[in-house]
Amino acid sequence: MKLYKYVRPHVVPKMFGVGGNVLVKCSTPDEFNDPYELFLTLDFDIEPSLLAFYEDVVGRVVQAPTACFSRSPDVVPMWAHYGSEGQGAVIELDEDCLLSAHPELEFGDVAYREGPDPALNNLLKWAATTLKFRHSHALQTAVLSAAYFTKASPWSYERERRMVVPPEYLRSRRDRSFLVVDKACITGVIAGPQASPQVRRTLRRRAGQIGCTYYQAVIGKLTPRPYFKTAAGPYTFDGERLLSARSACEECGEPLGRDGFRCSWCSMGDEEREAAAAENPLRLLAGVGLLEDYRSGAAPASEDW
Fold it and tell me: What is the CA radius of gyration of the chain?
């Protein structure tokens, strides 16, 4: 599986370490931008006796170092929010490679919910009734998993996948914690569609040092998602990975969703533009001085107009 880390432009020169290795920042959930991290587990509006049992068995959910990724590099809100309106970058990592180097890492997709999971309340009631060790342990495990891998549904656009990191894997710098990712696990670097020449140069140079692919995200005219230019041609994201486009416009280079040589925009010529102008009813109204009256509603609402 590929993981995508969106970063702001000022982070780009700082995240590359010695030999091309990449520093991935890890934070505890109390540092995340969602104030309800670790909250969306069970419904806490319950009997005081059950809540007391929960507090004693589960206690406060441990604050474990965590890194957050997306499963997609073409999420426009992610480029806006975490990539500084497209001025930043995305680092593509290979999860299997990470696990090979650090077997104790824990990965999981974030599930998006409208509210707490009723199954956890049922598990709490069952554990409080049976008072068996295995049921209390199951409650602890289920709550911990829900805390780290569940978020409210408004965040679903992020397509988030998380990595929980054992503290012994971390290195510290200026009161921040990082996982040092070997360059072999970096499979691509992507410059944002609005990235500055300096950010692009830095990423292109680092891609050469690491031996991975350099992509330039591009806002096209055919679809509401970016595509990605490389020296070998354009790429698109198929939901799991970046793939070379089947065909592309020979003029602008944008990937085509069909076989052909030019996209619809580049295929449009003077003849089509002149015909459209001649047939445009708004131009006809403007020609007889009635366009402003029509827009204001003063002209008759008739098909003759």
Answer: 26
Phi, psi of 88 (to 5 degrees): -90, -140
Segments making up each domain of the chain, as ranges: 2-184, 269-296
Which residue is it, tokens 């990965």?
A: 107
pLDDT in tens, 66-122: 999 999 999 999 999 999 999 999 999 999 999 999 999 999 999 998 888 899 999
**Helix 133-149 / helix 48-57 crossing angle, nearest 10 deg:** 90
Considering the entire predicted model, what is its pTM? 0.86
| Residue 105 neighbours by CB distance under 10 Å | 16
Q: What token pair was written down for 64? A: 């474990």
- Are 42 and 197 in contact by the 8 Å Cβ rule? The answer is no
Distance between CA 146 and CA 169 in Å, rounded? Answer: 23
For 161, the enclosing helix (H) or strand (E) is strand 160-164
Q: Structure tokens of 117? A: 């999971």
Structure tokens of 125? 């009631």
